[in-house]
């Protein structure tokens, strides 16, 4: 089955705009269900907050700075869909990329699984990976920054 990324994107936007947790569309034999787990989204936020106090003692006046490193110099590669992010092809394989790696346009950076379909996320340009903003097996939202390439 071929995934209509535009339709998935529209459904994800409807979820957010109407504060829904799930939406399902049927068209003949094709059935698309987009779902967001509100309780799952809280876990990564608490993880990020836990990282901020470690930086706070070093520079207390920069308490609002953790929001800025998420948009560093370089191009953020964003998720084209809602799904689960995987940094490697399987649990026994090394990650596709690591911070500091040089990539070419078209190299696989990671995979986003959506509806049991593994979707490779490719580098849009050549450059150096400066940040990986997601963890392995982390749920991701549409348009969420995943990797930064400088």
Automatic annotation (TrEMBL):
Transmembrane segments: none
Keywords, comma-separated and alphabetical: Biotin, Fatty acid biosynthesis, Fatty acid metabolism, Lipid biosynthesis, Lipid metabolism
Keyword Ligase among UniProt keywords: no
SUPFAM superfamilies for the chain: Single hybrid motif
InterPro entries: AcCoA_biotinCC, Biotin_BS, Biotin_Carboxyl_Carrier/Decarb, Biotin_lipoyl, Single_hybrid_motif
Keyword Lipid biosynthesis assigned: yes
All residue ranges annotated as the Lipoyl-binding domain in the record: 74-150
Pathway as given in its UniProt record: Lipid metabolism; fatty acid biosynthesis
Function: This protein is a component of the acetyl coenzyme A carboxylase complex; first, biotin carboxylase catalyzes the carboxylation of the carrier protein and then the transcarboxylase transfers the carboxyl group to form malonyl-CoA.
Protein name: Biotin carboxyl carrier protein of acetyl-CoA carboxylase
Upper taxonomic lineage: Bacteria, Pseudomonadati, Pseudomonadota, Alphaproteobacteria, Sphingomonadales
């Amino acid at each position: 089955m071929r995934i209509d990324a535009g339709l998935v994107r529209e459904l994800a936007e409807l979820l957010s705009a109407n504060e829904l947790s799930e939406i399902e569309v049927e068209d003949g034999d094709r059935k698309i269900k987009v779902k967001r787990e509100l309780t799952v989204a809280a876990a990564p936020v608490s993880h990020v907050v836990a990282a901020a106090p470690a930086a706070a003692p070093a520079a207390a006046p920069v308490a609002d700075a953790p929001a800025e490193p998420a948009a560093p110099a370089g191009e953020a590669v964003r998720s084209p869909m809602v799904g689960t992010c995987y940094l490697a092809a399987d649990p026994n394989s090394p990650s596709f990329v690591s911070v500091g790696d040089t990539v070419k346009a078209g190299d696989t950076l990671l995979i986003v699984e959506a509806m049991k379909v593994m979707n490779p996320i490719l580098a849009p340009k050549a450059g150096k990976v400066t940040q990986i903003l997601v963890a392995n097996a982390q749920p991701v939202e549409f348009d969420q920054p995943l990797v930064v390439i400088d």
